[in-house]
């Protein structure tokens, strides 16, 4: 009864906020970007909660904690430093300035206006459409075992309930409702992860006793070195590095992440948001991977071969009190619903603004755009729910593989072209196409011909990391040998940085 009461109260707050924020969602700018007036706390929490979902808490934390032991915490540290701190410093200000100057509300629209290319905009929107849906469906996976453990209810009920509630508050309040709900969900995640880590470690005699127990665990199939799972870099530092790269650098090219910078209000908000976002990532991501690192202490209760890596975290938590289990369920629901709302908003706005408008419907009115975006929110949530149900009912492995490569394909396609386009005038359309095609094709081939790949990049995680790093080389090399963009076009795009503005002395020294 306690769990049910907590869930009902939580859902009521989410829906209430959605209807409260209707006044901010009367036009496309308000619905998609919150009127570009969202403060540092809301933006930072929206960024963090979109970053971390059930995929991280249940899937990645369990899998990498089991494989690498306590050294998996490096993935969380990388998420905080590279995925949050550096992302805000490198992309935050310039993204906000140039996207407003170009009047772009989505990443594909940015490419279309920055390079004056409708085909480039459509190509980017197709990549978003193909690879965001399976990523959206993957969010449901981490909830199945937790709901089975806590409520003993069918996974299908969980999927349908989560989909309906997310659709209601996103359709009603748009980005502002999502941002406020993300703030509440972020607080739950911060409090929840700290509480759960403390409870799990206490169940094993405290941190020192748990670390000592982990040092005594041995697995000859992984490493013959004693105490390897309690060591600084663990049994496989190279593959751990690929995990850090994919999960940290990937945020720089994901549309639903970068779009958070479009809406932030001013310079001071960027500075505060940078700090808040970094601390949030350090606690949540660092905490998730740190917790997963102790998974092998529960090896007597876990059969990874039979039940998979997703069973590790739920098994670790199954011995907690009913109140703590309720907190865990809310924690994972919060993480998943915040990411889901961000994904469907990015997907529906992209498909409407970058694909349907201009391609199929000319001169679409503001009211029509809003109607299309809201309708597509329903479509995207419905499709992702159906995919998740199909996978659950029939154990289709192809869908699971596609979910694994979606992050690598999206970030590999967009990271380098977007970042270089914010800083460099010499970036060409051809280099963007080269990066789009290379990363998308590479990750699709990894699904069907994985065994033919070199051993080091057979893993979708390693392959995705390679796609992102390769883009940083492909864009400048192709730009060097391809036709240069028109000077007038480039000068107009970069003129936004030359506009003079007055700031306080803490930002810049006067004469």
Briefly characterize the structure.
This protein has 21 helices and no strands. It is mainly α and 511 residues long.
Can you describe this structure?
The chain has 511 residues and is mostly helical. The protein folds into 2 domains: 390 residues, Sodium/glucose cotransporter, CATH 1.20.1730; 89 residues, no CATH class. 74% of the residues lie in helices and 0% in strands. Helix 3 runs parallel beside helix 13, helix 6 packs antiparallel against helix 7 and helix 11 crosses helix 20. The protein is globular. The termini are far apart.
Measured as a percent range, the helix fraction is: over 70%
Biggest sheet descriptor: none
Pattern of helices and strands: HHHHHHHHHHHHHHHHHHHHH
Protein structure class: mainly alpha
Q: Residue ranges: pLDDT <50 for 5 or more in a row?
A: none
Q: Give the name of the CATH architecture of the largest domain.
A: Up-down Bundle
Q: What's the domain count?
A: 2
CATH topology of the largest domain: Sodium/glucose cotransporter
- The CATH superfamily of the largest domain is known as Sodium/glucose cotransporter
Overall 3D shape? globular
- The share of residues in extended strands comes to under 5%
CATH class of the largest domain: Mainly Alpha
Number of strands: 0
Radius of gyration: 22 Å
Q: What is the average of the pLDDT values?
A: 87
- In DSSP terms (H or I, runs of 4 or more residues), the helix count works out at 21
């Amino acid at each position: 009864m306690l769990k049910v009461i907590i869930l009902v109260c939580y859902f009521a707050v989410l829906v209430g906020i959605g209807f409260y924020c209707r006044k901010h969602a009367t036009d496309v700018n308000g619905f998609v970007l919150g009127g570009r007036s969202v403060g540092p706390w809301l933006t930072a929490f929206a960024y963090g909660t979109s970053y971390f979902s059930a995929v991280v808490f249940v899937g990645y934390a369990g899998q990498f904690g089991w494989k690498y032991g306590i050294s998996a915490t490096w993935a969380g540290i990388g998420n905080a430093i590279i995925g949050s701190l550096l992302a805000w410093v490198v992309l935050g200000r310039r993204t906000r300035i140039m996207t407003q100057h170009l009047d772009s509300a989505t990443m594909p629209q940015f490419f279309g206006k920055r390079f004056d290319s409708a085909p480039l905009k459509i190509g980017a929107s197709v990549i978003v459409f193909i690879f965001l849906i399976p990523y959206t469906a993957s969010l449901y996976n981490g909830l199945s075992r937790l709901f089975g453990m806590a409520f003993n209810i069918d996974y299908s009920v969980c999927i349908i309930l989560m989909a309906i509630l997310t659709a209601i508050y996103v359709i009603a309040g748009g980005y502002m409702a999502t941002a406020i709900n993300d703030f509440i969900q972020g607080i739950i995640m911060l409090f929840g992860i700290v509480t759960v880590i403390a409870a799990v470690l206490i169940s094993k005699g405290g941190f020192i006793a748990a670390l000592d127990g982990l040092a005594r665990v041995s697995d000859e199939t992984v490493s013959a070195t004693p105490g390897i799972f309690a060591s600084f870099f663990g049994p496989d530092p190279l593959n751990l590095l690929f995990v850090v790269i994919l999960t940290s650098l990937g945020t720089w090219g994901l549309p639903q992440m970068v779009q958070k910078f479009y809406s932030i209000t001013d310079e001071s908000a960027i500075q505060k948001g940078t700090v808040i976002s970094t601390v949030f990532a350090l606690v949540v991501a660092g905490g998730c991977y740190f917790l997963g690192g102790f998974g092998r202490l529960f090896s007597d209760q876990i059969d990874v071969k039979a039940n998979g890596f997703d069973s590790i975290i739920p098994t670790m938590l199954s011995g907690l009190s009913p109140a703590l289990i309720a907190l865990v369920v809310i924690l994972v629901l919060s993480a998943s619903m915040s990411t889901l709302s961000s994904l469907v908003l990015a997907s529906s706005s992209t498909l409407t603004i970058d694909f349907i408008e201009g391609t199929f419907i000319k001169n679409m009115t503001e009211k029509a755009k809003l109607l299309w975006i809201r309708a597509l929110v329903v479509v995207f949530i419905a499709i992702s729910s159906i995919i998740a149900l199909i996978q659950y009912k029939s154990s289709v492995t192809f869908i699971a593989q596609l979910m694994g490569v979606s992050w690598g394909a999206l970030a590999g396609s967009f990271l380098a072209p977007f970042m270089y386009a914010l800083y460099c005038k010499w970036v060409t359309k051809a280099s963007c196409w080269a990066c789009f095609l290379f990363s998308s094709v590479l990750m699709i081939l990894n699904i069907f011909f994985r065994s033919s790949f070199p051993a080091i990049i057979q893993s979708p995680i390693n392959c995705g990391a390679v796609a992102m790093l390769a883009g940083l080389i492909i864009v400048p090399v192709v730009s060097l040998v391809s036709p240069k963009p028109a000077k007038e076009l480039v000068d107009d795009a970069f003129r936004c940085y030359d506009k003079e503005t007055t700031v306080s002395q803490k930002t810049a020294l006067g004469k």
